[in-house]
Amino acid sequence: MLGGVRGAARDWLDRPMTSWHLILAVFALLLGFGLLMVLSASSIVSFKQGSGSAFATFESQAVYAVIGSVGFVFAARVSPRFIRGASFPAVLVSLFLLAAVLVIGKKINGARSWIGVGSATFQPSELAKVALLVWMAHVLAARRHTLRSLRSLLFPVLPVFVLMVALIMMQPDLGTTVSLCIVFFAVLWFAGAPMWIFGLLAAGGIAGVVYLSTSAGYRAARILAFLHPFDPAYQAWTYQVQQGWFGMGHGGLFGVGLGQSMVKWSWLPNADSDFIFAVIGEELGLIGTGLVLLLFGLLAYTGLRIARRSVEPWNKIVAAAATVWLVGQAAINIGYVVGLLPVTGIPLPMISAGGTSLVVTMLVFGLLANLARREPQAAAALYAQGPGRIGRFLGIDVQRPGDPRPPSRRTLRRRAAAARREAAQQERADRRHRRAEVRVAKAEAGTQAARRSREERAAAAARAARRPAPRRGASPVDPRRAGRPVADRGRPDEARTRRTAPPVEPGRRAATPDARRAPADPRRRAEGPDPRRRPDGTDRRPAGARTDPRRRPDAAATGGRRRGAPPELRRDGDRPSHFGDDGWSPAAQPTRDRRPSAGERRQPSTPDRRSARMRP
């Protein structure tokens, strides 16, 4: 059974219009319950004030409820674009009224916070809360991409907030100042401000609270009475709190009954406004106070649900910040009634007696209802199924989802300016990134060059360690290039000067200049006698092999053509070779053979590649 109930509740919460239904239900329950408790808690005080009627306060509250209902319908129907456009004029009007109340305002309970309009009164500081909420959300939503900058985040929001706080504290009204601070910090939090901003503002706020608490004697006395509630020296300051405790203790679990409270008979000051929660606890008991807590908890869930399911940044910020404002104000009121916080005079939203507070709170509920029906799923459901009875009663217009109205020219200009600022900031960031990349690349290139240099030096050292020691007096010149000028070494063969090595005597090896200058290698003497010579010293090789083919006597008769060895000196199958058994051979050099006679038959041979390349 429990699983079925849980599944049904989950299915109902997944419906697209759940937020709309929840906010309307919470609004109606809080409004009806508040009017009922104001009627019960204010009857004795209204009769004793000389009006002759026990319903005077209730009638005034009902009139304000009607005005607030008009504000609720207006806020639920109007477009968010209109609210954002009217936010700055609302801030200017609020600042003007806060300054005017210091001159023409009425002084009630020691604070000049009300402006008289005929027999009614109006509190401008309550309007300042809503104006600051929608205007701050509008500014920070437009600058959501540049909130890391202190100037973009706090200017001009912080100066306006400080000016409002200064004007309110000149009345003086500490409770409204605390509520305004809740609105300010909530908007900053849900706009995505960095944490260090809250650290700075919290430090400044704590310093301001300490100063305000010690600057006025009655504020310091309230704080000391909160710290020592049972001290006889602070009996006058703790009397109101102690009477509230007595009323809630007298109510017990189920209460003494509606209208049967004893503390409202002039025992509890401000029983219909600041301490109405104590009257609820006495008349309805723990059940009644638990119902109040449940309603505000449901309000917190609904408001945050609307913020989470919204798409537009302004909708998210306003829904979440307004929810925190109302729930936080209720928590402070309940906290000082039960003795957890010092008394600040903040009313309980929708329940405490107070015309301006009720109208402003109903206006905020209408704004939440407006944002609830603009959730993407809710907008699609309204377009498909229609607004329903309540929507038709409230005059809700149905708009095609995903087809917003075209923005105004002013909005387009603002968007273009914001886009230009964002592009300039992105360009500066890209430039800084490129400079950083260049620095990193240079550092890496230097590191790699140093590594290559170390590796080359290590490789050269390793090669030098493996290379055998050169012979004394030897030259590293290639023996194949011996006899050529230094200027010709390293050039292509076609570009070299056609010079030949010096002639070699018959029976001796061709030697390079370096080899001629170098002494005999002692290792060769250790190898034994030369196999090319007989024991008597004569050469074993044929006479043709001992003759240098490069310097034949009849070289001039050959026409200067380069030839290999004469055919009569070649053996069958032999080919000219550049290198002999000992490495260097006279056949490696081009020769100028004589022109063969007509009776001689040329033997077929394969020309050497180098000799063929050297031929003209």
From TrEMBL:
It is a multi-pass membrane protein. The chain crosses the membrane at residues 20-41, 62-80, 86-105, 153-170, 182-212, 245-263, 275-296, 317-338, 350-372. It comes from Nakamurella endophytica. Peptidoglycan polymerase that is essential for cell division. Keywords: Cell cycle, Cell division, Cell membrane, Cell shape, Cell wall biogenesis/degradation, Glycosyltransferase, Membrane, Peptidoglycan synthesis, Transferase, Transmembrane, Transmembrane helix. This is Probable peptidoglycan glycosyltransferase FtsW. Residues 395-616 are annotated as: Disordered. It catalyses: [GlcNAc-(1->4)-Mur2Ac(oyl-L-Ala-gamma-D-Glu-L-Lys-D-Ala-D-Ala)](n)-di-trans,octa-cis-undecaprenyl diphosphate + beta-D-GlcNAc-(1->4)-Mur2Ac(oyl-L-Ala-gamma-D-Glu-L-Lys-D-Ala-D-Ala)-di-trans,octa-cis-undecaprenyl diphosphate = [GlcNAc-(1->4)-Mur2Ac(oyl-L-Ala-gamma-D-Glu-L-Lys-D-Ala-D-Ala)](n+1)-di-trans,octa-cis-undecaprenyl diphosphate + di-trans,octa-cis-undecaprenyl diphosphate + H(+). Residues 407-418 have a biased composition (Basic residues). It is found in: Cell membrane. It comes from the Bacteria. Belongs to the SEDS family. FtsW subfamily. It holds the Pfam family FTSW_RODA_SPOVE. Pathway: Cell wall biogenesis; peptidoglycan biosynthesis. It is an enzyme of class 2 (transferase). One of its GO terms (biological process) is regulation of cell shape. Residues 419-430, 478-497, 514-554, 568-581, 591-616 have a biased composition (Basic and acidic residues).
